[in-house]
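U., I forgot to send this yesterday:
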Amino acid sequence: MNLFPSDDRDDNYYPSSGRFFDVWLGRNDSRWGSDAEYNRATLNYSQYLPVSSNHIIALSLNASEVDGDTPFFLKPSLNMRGFVTTKYQDEAAASTHIEWRYKFSTRWGSMVSYEAGSVGSSLSKLKNIILSVGAGIRWKIQKDNNLNLGVDVGVSKDDSAFYIVIGEKF
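Result:
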């Protein structure tokens, strides 16, 4: 069940102003045909701050928690750059992200990110904070559409990763 959805972003592909807020609650149960019984709660919040016509600060906060017999592939994990997504996975995960997006021409841009997150047995018992930094280049696929194709690199204390992306992370 999607509670309190709110979206006043100026664009779905490359937002430069506005907010996105979403709270989702779900229950899987054998009464509804599920093989596993568990609850899941997820919160996503993003805000986009235009510093100028070419500079955007994008902020995001994500939190998720499950309880019950949750399949491993549906457990919360840190959706951050710099390591394999399932490297940090538990019953709860929370992360915050900040990106500086810069358009240096009509079809070319760049991105620099800083992310922090943690996982644990519940949101009140999160463990060590994981940090990552990233950078990327963007190319606007069509002149009339704000959809970007990009290449990102992310680095954390444990690992690094290379990404080919369509659109923005958030």
